[in-house]
Amino acid sequence: MSIDLTQDFFALFGVPRRYEIDDAVLEAAWHELQSQVHPDRHAHLSDAEKRRSMQWATRVNEGFRTLRQPLTRAQYLLELAGVDAGLETNTAMSPEFLMEQMEWREAVEEAREAAEVAELEDLHRRLLQHSREVRAQLGRQLDDEHDYEGAADTVRRLMFIGKLQHDIDEALLALEN
């Protein structure tokens, strides 16, 4: 048994190289691969074979972690397309998006300061819906339009949205305690 450690994660799991993938198919493929490469199955082999088994298991787990989350899957697709999303260096966002983020943050801060749990929960719900819409746009950019530069911008937007979602969750948790 051997796994080609040079193939991309999509090929490794036998799923199409797309943003929209079937999560159940991915998970089933992961379980199948894990059952083949788990180090316990190779404990009786030579040290070299044990190391190879560990490499396989590591690669399988890394691939599953990458593909199961929409944001990391999108980043990986961009990487495969040779596009640097510039996550650490490109912070340029449209003025409209930045204004939207400021409005969201102000609303969260006001609700937090006023201890308005219902308002925070409403913001949470609305932000989840907004996030779904942005992820749908990302899927179109990657799968249909092959607009990788636009997708890189959308990935950066989703990271901002994720941070805001985390801040709302933290505010709710703080008010519950």
Describe this structure in words.
This protein is mainly alpha-helical. 73% of the residues lie in helices and 0% in strands. It has 7 helices and no strands. Helix 2 packs antiparallel against helix 3, helix 5 packs antiparallel against helix 6 and helix 5 runs parallel beside helix 7 (148-176). The longest helix has 29 residues, at 117-145. The relative contact order is 0.12.
**If you average the pLDDT, what whole number results?**
91
The count of DSSP E runs of length 2 or more, i.e. the number of strands, is: 0
Q: What's the helix-strand series? A: HHHHHHH
Count of helical stretches: 7
For the termini, the CA-CA separation is: 52 Å
Which runs of at least 5 residues are low in confidence (pLDDT < 50)? none
Radius of gyration: 20 Å
Structural class category: mainly alpha
Major beta sheet summary: none
**Helical content, roughly?**
over 70%
Basic shape: globular
User: Proportion of β residues?
Assistant: under 5%
Task: Give me the secondary-structure topology.
Layout: H1 9-13, H2 23-37, H3 47-68, H4 70-80, H5 95-113, H6 117-145, H7 148-176
